[in-house]
Amino acid sequence: MQFLFYVLFSAFVVAADQLAKYVTVACIPLYENRPFLPGLLRLTYVQNTGAAFSTFQGQQWLFALIFVIFTGLILREYFKKPLPFTKLERFCIAAIYGGGLANMLDRVRLGYVVDMIETTFMEFPVFNVADCFITCGCVVLMVHLVFFNKAFWKDEKK
Q1: What is the pLDDT along the chain (158 residues), one digit of tens a residue?
Q2: Contacts of range 41-45, beta carbons closer than 8 Å, 24 or more positions apart
Q3: Domain residue spans in the chain?
Q4: Which active-site residues does the annotation give?
Q5: Model-level pTM?
């Protein structure tokens, strides 16, 4: 039953991201921007064929391979060999997976990822809602694993 909640949360991440991308493409011409939160963010429609910071341009097969491996590891972990993750950590993994799935849908459907959030207070690449879930999920997961989940790091000797 818990697995269903994680699947639904991942589906929410995908839906939120795809909705934001749909609105962006419908309302903002390519490479133009609109104010969103003055002094903080603006919406800028960009097509990214790479990964973070536009690295690995055109390497769609690599992203697909990583996503398939990640999917297999999640299914194996949940159904075959559960690790001592907490509920929070599993939600972080669901956020990371949902963000990855949302970006993979763009790559398969369009051949690129739609990015739209641009920071105005610092120089930073344009990103999207899925990237936010991936980044926040990774940060919270790592912090929680390092500082709060002692059971994860116990060395079981048999």
Answers
A1: 688 999 999 999 999 999 999 999 999 999 999 999 999 999 999 999 877 666 677 777 788 888 899 999 888 888 887 888 889 999 999 999 999 999 999 999 998 999 999 999 999 999 999 999 999 999 999 999 999 887 777 765 44
A2: 41/117, 41/118, 41/119, 41/120, 42/118, 42/120, 43/116, 43/117, 43/118, 44/115, 44/116, 44/117, 44/118, 44/126, 45/114, 45/115, 45/116
A3: 2-26+41-122+130-149
A4: 115, 131
A5: 0.88
